[in-house]
Design a protein that fits this description.
Number of domains: 2
Bound molecules: glutathione
Helix content: 40-55%
Structural class: mainly alpha
Largest sheet: 3 strands, mixed
Order of helices and strands: HEHEHEHHHHHHHHH
CATH topology of the largest domain: Glutathione S-transferase Yfyf (Class Pi), Chain A, domain 2
Length: 270
């Protein structure tokens, strides 16, 4: 699909984002659905939080100056991962659980409570988020399926990589069992009777193993290889075996009902 230039999202620089004193600024790589940025974008969409997009500096050194391209990001946030989130004059947030809590707090009146007030439900939502979004969860293990500089940052070794498909499949089955049980109670959501953070995180991050069609995740010049990797992940036998129609239906329902589709990525659409 093609978008006119007027539809193309604008990105400000990291420096501008850090200097602003109002608004919610989140870093992205144009054209690339870096999954934690995509998930945060969807969380903010459900919460009616307007986002100002900023450019996330890429790993590596600047060819002209020889400087580390992420030096300023490190100076500002003491880390380099994507996305970082600035809101008004508050401290930058770099980890999903803090970003989620912030988005839930600053969301527009009348939008869903993504972290339930009910503690029993909160226990379930945050527990499920931990196995999908947190360390050694779905994305963490997906990232070490193959060797790469990013995978090395996240604990790649031959043994860890060999164990990853079974762990990814285990998470998918856990989610699938919950969807099945929830359906018997008449709920299309993972916890309780309304959308929560886990529906949004799961629907977004499961794209890394269950790639949706381009009407949901458009292809860009910048993301072609990444989407091919995601499609390939879904064909690893242990993972393919765990991916039920129920998983695909829930993903589509949440993304098309609550999130902005096709995903707005910037970059160069194909
Ligand atoms: N810090 C994030 C994780 C986000 C993340 O892992 N981002 C990856 C890309 S998928 C990244 O930017 N890694 C490079 C780095 O850590 O420098 C969180 O725990 O919420």
């Amino acid at each position: 699909m093609t978008r006119s230039d007027s539809d193309a999202p604008q990105f400000i620089s990291l420096e501008e984002a850090a200097a602003m004193t109002t608004g919610t600024r989140v870093t992205f790589i144009p054209g690339v659905p870096a999954m934690y940025s995509e998930a945060l974008k969807n969380i903010c969409h459900v919460k009616g939080v307007p986002l100002i997009r900023a450019l996330h500096p890429l790993m590596g050194v600047d060819k002209e100056t020889g400087e580390d391209r992420q030096a300023r990001l490190y100076e500002l946030t003491r880390q380099t991962s994507l996305p970082t989130m600035f809101h008004d004059e508050e401290r930058p947030r770099n980890v999903w659980i803090e970003q989620l809590a912030l988005a839930d707090r600053i969301g527009a009146p009348g939008t869903p409570k993504l972290i339930p007030d009910d503690f029993e439900q909160r226990l379930e939502v945050m527990g499920l988020c931990a196995v999908v979004v947190g360390e050694d969860g779905l994305v963490w293990n997906m990232r070490i399926l193959n060797d790469s500089p990013l995978a090395r940052k996240y604990g790649y070794s031959e043994e860890a990589s060999a164990a990853a498909p079974a762990k990814v499949a285990e998470v998918i089955r856990l989610i699938d069992r919950r969807l099945e049980a929830q359906a018997t109670r008449g709920s299309p959501y993972l916890v309780g009777g309304a959308i929560t953070a886990i529906d949004v995180y799961w629907a977004t991050l499961s794209m890394t193993v269950a790639l949706p069609s381009p009407d949901i995740m458009p292809v860009t010049k910048q993301n072609q290889r990444m989407l091919a990797f995601f499609a390939n992940n879904g064909e690893i036998p242990e993972i393919a075996d765990a991916l039920s129609q129920r998983i695909r239906d829930h993903q589509r329902y949440i993304l098309t009902t609550y999130c902005e589709t096709p995903a707005v990525l910037g970059g160069d659409p194909i």
